[in-house]
Write a sequence for this structure.
């Protein structure tokens, strides 16, 4: 008698060796960030992000390590400097550069003038020249204006003295001057007037006053006279009182001759 098939009134018995496993287990679902193209692109463009995606992917352990090493080298390459120089290269003798003893001259269209060192200007010689010419020659070299004075103490310098002649100058001719600090000056005489032998002299020297040995006095105005009779008493003040009628004197201001006379009380009159 044959055994009926399972499910027909007889309970089904499990096989003695158990159920066979599935030939292929189900593969895990791959996310969008685990796509190989995305991971490789990120490894090239932004290595740190690509390394993170590589370790989150379904790649094997070996692939993850290789991708990490390559991406790290790619990322660090720009930061690596030049390789250290081999000290042996410096020890090698370098060929000496030899220059030709004679160089062929090259003609230039316009020679360049050599610069001349700046030097202080010299004071020009202006003695014997009119003031106008001296002023132009000196003021072209200095910053300040030329100062003019009369060469005689008793002669006043007029406002218009362009044709007056220079007798003395300062600084002397040929002296080095500093344009910013030089203070030039000249002393002049009228045209046709002889220059004095030295500065601070009078054109009309005053006569030396003479006094009697017996007595001499001075009036309240400063004029002096001799008490021994008429005679020259030296310089006097015109219009001042005098004590000796008939005495003569030279006026202080103009060098004219004055006489001690009236009318009224005696005064120095012309």
């Amino acid at each position: 008698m044959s055994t009926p098939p399972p499910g027909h009134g007889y309970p089904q018995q499990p096989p003695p060796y158990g159920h066979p496993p599935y030939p292929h287990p189900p593969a895990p679902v791959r996310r969008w960030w685990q796509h190989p193209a995305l991971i490789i692109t990120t490894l090239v463009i932004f290595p740190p992000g690509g390394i993170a995606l590589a370790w989150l992917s379904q790649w094997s352990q070996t692939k993850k390590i290789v991708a990490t090493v390559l991406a790290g080298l790619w990322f660090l390459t720009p930061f690596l400097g030049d390789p250290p120089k081999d000290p042996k290269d410096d020890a090698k003798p370098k060929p000496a550069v030899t220059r030709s003893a004679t160089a062929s001259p090259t003609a230039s269209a316009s020679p360049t003038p050599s610069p001349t060192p700046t030097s202080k200007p010299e004071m020009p010689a202006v003695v014997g020249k009119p003031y106008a010419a001296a002023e132009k020659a000196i003021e072209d070299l200095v910053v300040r204006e030329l100062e003019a004075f009369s060469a005689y103490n008793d002669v006043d310098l007029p406002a218009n003295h362009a044709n007056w002649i220079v007798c003395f100058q300062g600084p002397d001719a040929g002296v080095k001057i500093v344009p910013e600090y030089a203070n030039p000056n000249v002393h002049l005489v009228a045209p046709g007037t002889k220059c004095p032998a030295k500065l601070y002299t009078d054109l009309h020297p005053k006569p030396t006053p003479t006094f009697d040995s017996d007595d001499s006095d001075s009036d309240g105005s400063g004029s002096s006279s001799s008490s021994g009779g008429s005679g020259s008493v030296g310089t006097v003040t015109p219009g001042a009182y005098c004590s000796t009628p008939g005495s003569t004197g030279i006026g202080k201001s103009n060098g004219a001759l004055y006489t001690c006379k009236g009318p009224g009380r005696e005064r120095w009159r012309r």
